[in-house]
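Feature request, filed as a ticket because there's no other form

It would be nice if the structure record came with a short human-readable summary line next to the tokens. Right now we just get the raw output. Example of a typical job, pasted below so the devs can see what we mean:
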Amino acid sequence: MERIDQKTYVDTYAYFGGTDSSTGLSVSTATSGNNANQWQAEILSKLGPQAGGTITVTPLGSASPLNMGNSQALQVKITVTWNELGRSKNVTLQEVRF
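Raw output as currently delivered:
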């Protein structure tokens, strides 16, 4: 989240493949070829071979149709999942960017 916070408003969604007309986006750290993948090796090393993360960016506001280019704010949500003692665990961090 701290690295994403360093991005400008537009760069927040563009960095993960979104455009002004995107109505939302979700990228997995396990999928190669996207900027979220840079964190997968660290996630695996700390949380095990079945761990991964998802980054979701959602535009917020009252525009119709609502998209990244006309939103008033962006909700950025990061969810990390892993298995521990045979049970699925997860943690979610989220913030709103203006």
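Something like this underneath would help us a lot:
The mean pLDDT is 97.
Helices lie at 2-5, 9-14, 40-47.
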